[in-house]
Amino acid sequence: MKIFTKMYDACLRWARHKYAVYILGFVSFIESIFFPIPTAVMLAPMALARPNRALWLAFVAMATSVLGGVVAYIIGAFAFQSWVYPWIVELGYGDTYNRAYQWFLEYGVWVVLVAGFSPVPYKIFTLTAGAMSMAFVPFLVASIIARSAQFFLIGGLVKWGGEQMEHKLRQYVEWIGWGVLILGVLAYIIYNLVN
């Protein structure tokens, strides 16, 4: 049974929808605030479906993600204790928040740069930055750099690989899907054993 191939084909069909770019922007925006699914999950198949627009799609994802990060920063600054922290604990991100908080204390703005590629959800960093009253301009600059790096890397690889990459990826998507799933489970187990 080819689970990941079916999912991949479905993502490519959705990516060709006439409103796909608006959906990408919306998902990218809310992912920076509360949405649990990473933007890259939608950006990659959209860029594969339209390699000639891959960099434009990366820009849309980056811009809307940073705007969502600004909204999350404001929410964190004004409603963290009353609304955000209880919600973080309810969703099971309490330990993740505490880790992000410690990283902010140790590394400051550099944490936001790392957040673009970290396994810790970006939304935790945006909300925490607001709650800790981090200087807004460095937060904004770091967010733009981090999100640009992630999304333009995806868009650039797809543009470079083009249609050929789409066919190769489809050919190996089952192996990649199961491999990522197994690595994720192993990382989770190792992380829990270490902490």
Automatic annotation (TrEMBL):
This is VTT domain-containing protein. InterPro entries: DedA_domain, VTT_dom. Residues 50-154 form the VTT domain. The keyword Transmembrane applies. GO terms for cellular component: plasma membrane. Keywords: Membrane, Transmembrane, Transmembrane helix. The chain crosses the membrane at residues 20-43, 55-80, 100-122, 134-155, 175-194.
